[in-house]
Design a protein that fits this description.
Blueprint: H1 2-15, H2 22-43, H3 51-69
Helix pairs in contact: 2-3
Length: 74
Amino acid sequence: MLPAAASLALFAWLLTLHPAASGRVYAAYGGVYVTLAIFWLWWADQIKPSRWDLLGAALCLAGMAVIMFAPRTA
């Protein structure tokens, strides 16, 4: 648990180094994290995801894509 907590704290600190885009970076991390967690469930735990699991992961990736790739004016 301690290495995981330290890694998360380091990640959060690294986000502060780029304050203008930190929310977008966190959105990208969140979308990928949720999707990989579903595939980890399938691969490591041998539990096949339901269509709802896959739909949820797809929605997370779609939301992340909207945030990351939206046109910017500035």
